Amino acid sequence: MYQKLVSLCKSNGIKSESFFDYNQNLFLSGSRDFLGFIRSKLSTYITRHNTLPNSRELRNMGFSGLERIINNLGGYKEVCNQLGLDSERFRNSWNEVNSKSKFLWLCEKVNRIPTDKDYEKYGLGGLKRYVYKNQKKMIYEELAREKGFASIVELKEIMPSGYWSLSTIKDTITPLCELFSRIPTKSELLELGMSELECAIQQYTSREELSRILGVPTYNLQNGVRPYIFEDLKDELTPIVKQFGYLPSRKELDSIGKKKLYHHIDKFGGPSKFAEKLNIPTFSQYRGIKRDGFWKDEKNLFLLIEHELLPLVQELGFIPNESFLRNEGLYEISQLIQKFGKRKKMSEYLGFPTYSEYKGTRENGYWEDVTNLKTLILEKLLPLVEKLGYIPTEKYLKERGLRELRLLIEKFGGRNKISDYLGYPTYNQVKNEELKNNNRSAN
What pTM value is reported for the model? Predict the structure, then answer.
């Protein structure tokens, strides 16, 4: 930022030495010169609108560096007043003074250093953006600590390893049950900053078991909603299993109007585990999956694709990844995809994208293939470079959310290598050339 401001000052014939100390910190004593600097850079906009451009307009005009100067001079409203411009559009804008006082007000309101949720709860999203965008978070938090406030992490009591058990969960949750007149929900515990208790409940017990032990209803029971338990699913599936002779596939359940049952089957560990509990075969086991050579027979693979994988893919809209299948207990489908030739081949066969393609990410190993990188450079990066006339900076790409292009440049070896490959200069090379030309013309 320092170098950029110095370059801007030099290119406009302004002495920069009076604006910075030996630590390169900005002196506000030079505000008059900076006001003139702002007016000269934005003269066209000021003449047309009689006010200053907002932060988005500054970025679009290529003057994002001016925003830091404006904020250091007291904010948009203050600079407008000093320049004699209309400040009405910035009547509610944040600056160094009002943002600090409002931040401390919020600290008093929540009795700690505010979190992101606190800003949103009190309708102060603009304040949060100002604090984060202008890198004042650490400064303001230090100010809050001087006033005696602590962060939610510092206030939270971290329990020692091995602390949690069914007994300690009961002792901790009992006062909360009295407060809510029921077992508190997950969102309520997280809102209270008791994520450790929530994790302990999931690890050692369940809300239904706590409800039975403590004699207190869960949220669902209190509102007349009974949870769907294993016995309910067993009762629904028993006549269907008798009809088929095995646990039906997704396609078969869908054909008899019982598609929703497969969601419950997945909830209780997937078809393999559920069938094991009932001591019945799954669809694939019924057709001899354990027989030697089953996976070598293409007919068996296509049969499983039709009955098990395709209905799932049609529901999801993509080929599920390994993590999804493992979490859902769908080990047979995972093995089926591997035997068929992995996800890319399955994607081509079924005409559905892989999970990575669906989410806009890349498959494992994609970034290690130079051919992929060169293709991506020509398809995605080159049009942008041709528009700008140079290789975009990290800041430019980050501000516009172009994460993939940032990763592409990094994987290819950096901006200098991209510059050599495409024959375009980097941003720094362009600016250095402009500076040299300005110096020559000044001499």
Answer: 0.31
